[in-house]
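Most newcomers find our protein records easier to grasp once they have seen one. Read left to right, the backbone structure tokens trace the chain's path through space. Once this layout is familiar, the rest of the handout is easier to follow. The record below serves as our worked example for the rest of this section:


***
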Amino acid sequence: MRHRFAHTIACFAVMLSGWITGTGCGADAGARDTRDNEAARQQLSEALRHLANHRIRRARDIYDDLLEEPNGIESRAAAGRAVTNLLLIPTSPPVDTILTQHLGASAPLESTDVIYGDQGYLYWRSRGVQWEKSGEYAGIKTLLVDRLPWSEKRLESLAAFVEGRTRPVGDAIDPLTRLASRLRGIEGTIERVLADSDFKIFVLPGVTLQEQRLTLRLGPSEFAVIGAAMATARAVIRFTSAYVHDWTLERAFGSHWRRKAESDEGDHPEWNPRDYTIDYLDRHLGREFREERDRHLRAAREASRRALAFFVDAIDRGQNQERETALRWEEVNPEYATDLRETLDALRGALGESTRIPTTEPTTRLDLSVFFDPGRTLDSEINWWVPAPEDERMGGSSGNDASSSIRWTWNDRAIQRFAVDGGVFDPEFEVSADEAPEWTRGGASWNNFRSNLVGPTRRAVEEAFFRGR
């Protein structure tokens, strides 16, 4: 009995010791967590100071470090990482490859210096300086010539810029695909932001963009819109990458068209260089698939679904957002926002199967799946664009005049064959007969919604960067 009693006392002592130790460790751990959170907040403040001083890469590194382990502020750090990675896209490896191997740059573009830095592009734009020289004032092109990877002569015109760019545009698909993957990474970071219901706002200092008055307050809705923009860009890249691009920049936009127009060669003496460009591109766009089309089209559909899901999420979050941010959801008609949400959600469904699109007149079903499986090309005998009828053409009487007398318009036959026939719309319609269904929330109501939503921010951007001197 004495043995059992001693055993019980020993067990109790061990348990009590463990409880005391555990309590002590818990107190120490709690204190350590507090210190860790305080240190993380200090790092957030440091990252903000780097942003204010245009040290965007250094700020991004801090956000990356903060996301390495739990600290209670992961969503704020993820927001910072998403924004800084977005600002650093011009210096990403895929863009470096495109600039140096396909656009004739002598070196990668250092965007933190050339775009965001003091006396960089945004610095001069915010002070009313134009790209080209204006009267006695030098243009940005001249002011930045020593910091850009192209000579000033190369930047004189589009024709000068593309001179010697004889590689097929399709050769750039590989770095463009890698760029799309980079955009996908930003989307993933934004999803991490939106997964935290406690996330409220991220403030991008206006001085980062060289304009103090342009401080951007980004809430969950704004981040959803950024995610939608990334996914949309990715969808465009992957969709166009499914097609053969055997045309070249020099052939499309080079000075040889001007020489041809000035010499009145060929069958179209009334054409100017722009008309030759349109004719050349018409024969090379959307005509043939690459061997890797299935991979690219699958990725394009996935990106399109994500873009629409982000847009729907932006509306949902915006309508429930309490703080004033860059998007003014409190100013929009909530019924219109609900109708728009239903339309976007229906379009997401239409990517996979025939889906009724609300607010259409007449009521219409849409099936976008045919653009991704098996995909569509346009027959070579049908032009994408045709000259508008004589009574619809622009002013100008000479083919060599800078303002061409020709106005090009989409070819109804091309739209019918590529985008309408084959079960895309139900009921079907004839483009040439102007029978297309109407989205009843378009026109003035859409313009009012957009103006109310982004008007103040758009006006601030225009005031900051698009006023001349």
